[in-house]
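Explain this fold:

***
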Amino acid sequence: MQFIRKLAAAVLATVLCSPQLACAQPTVTSFAPTEGLTMGWTQVVFTGTNLGSTSAVRFDGVDATNLIVDGSGTRVTATTPAHARGTVAVELITALGTAAAGSYTYVPQPNITNWGPGEGSMLGGTEVTITGSGFTGATTVLFGSKPATRFTVDSDTQIIAVAPPQPAGLTVMFEISTPIAHMPHSMGYFTYTVPPELRPTVTSVAPRWNPPAGGVPVVLTGTNLTGTTAVRFAGQSALSFTVDSATQVTAIPPPAPLQSAGVEVTTGLGTAQGFFLYASAPALASASPTTGPTTGGTPVTLRGSGLLSTTRVSFGGVAASSFNAVDDTRIDVLTPSHAAGNATVQVVAESGTAVLSGAVFAFVSPPADGACGAADGQERITPPTAGLCSAGAAGSVAAASWAFAWTCAGQNGGADSRQCSAPWPLSGVGGLRTSLALPDPATNQGWGLDTAVLDAALPAPLPGGASTQHRALRLVLSGGSAGSSAQFTVHYSEPVPAGAVYLKYGPSPQGLNCNGAACAQPHWYALPGSTAVFAPDRRSVTLTLTDGGLGDSDAVPGHITDPGLPVLLAGAGGGTGPVSVPALGPWALTVLALALPLWVGLGRKTNQKR
């Protein structure tokens, strides 16, 4: 047949192109469609003149298939071959020559390679991102048989489509259509689910257990329980149930084996689960051993019944460090840390609470070796009250050999006592040290110590010819009533020279090294012997200071500020010999004069806070 067609074309060409006739050229005036899929198989119809001898239709040089030449010579039909994406030239080959048809565009078939999410609400509205190729010009996105609520073609490789509403549990397939193609085979799947706000939930179960015989009513509380179709306990249907409201269902559990668990509530929109257990009420029969150290960690075996659902074990109200319900008759426990003494053993289970009747667990303090605490070796101007011992019991604090000393005794068979000490602070020349002792505020008209400092510099030069071996002791007392007196004792590591007095700095009553208005200004003055009493061995002085009066350097009620020190005045004899103390220069005196009102102001603020 092909041979005959070619022979006819040759004869026709001979006739039409004889010397007597001009050669008639083939032409293509139009063809359709002008675009198709890259896979080919698109039927294209060409219209023109002198096409009766067409022997081939070529797309970018590749022959089309299924060539049909109409007898009129004006119509040719052919099926496109496969070709890569793009625009190509089309031509028809005839016996009279080649006719250029124009351009034909190959476009790809839409192809889905990925999508997400793969599920969404039955109410619709889930945005699904679909990726692949060939999406340009997409006209339709289907979820099963329903079109997307809306979609956006971001690029040739991505579409974002919004799922339409459909029944829960339905799984549908995507289909994407373009003007010339659609997906002949579904490539993506989307499953409709019940949104969380519509699903049933069980938030509480009361009671959370039944005996194996069942029959005890159980109240299930939750949400979206209207339309409950089934209630199951340990996989078995409830004997009966009542939907009390959208938030409550009451059900009767059936009999079930011991330790069977779980409860389920089913509605048309899903199933909700809760905790439920078939168990016997717990009972405790024994504990072994019955003693252990207060530090805890003692393994104890508890025996009884109904113990498998245990949720808590306690000793004297303190939760066990850990426990393991081995079976319904045994629990292995590690004791917690607990104060010394007897403690009740209690077990709390899903099925109730049990206390070990008539028996307790005895916590015994372990041996402790005496050991000094953080105060050991630290300079202190007053006896330490904290950090005395890191282990063991502290003895009373006493002053000896220029230090505070105490013991840390072993306990419960621990090692012998440890000796601990804290030196007095350096307070003068030649290694001189000083400490301070105050009575308890309850016996000292309420006065307690706020601060005590040994200043390296004096607040003002000493009177002419005076000397001292000491630093000035500056302390602040508070807590007493206005106008009352406070008493305290200053101890020294060396005797104060004979003839020395306790010199104070501040305002004073008339006649104490001042006259008239000068008495209101800070100055040095000696405390009378009745308010500064030196011990016979001159190693201590007991001072009595009056709020707002003798010995108080500020005017704030309920607040005593006391800078002072032992001084050997000019012309006084005895003692071990005075040592001059550097006095403040003019510049320092100026700064001190400016700062003094600030000190007084701070003292007033401190008293107001108290």
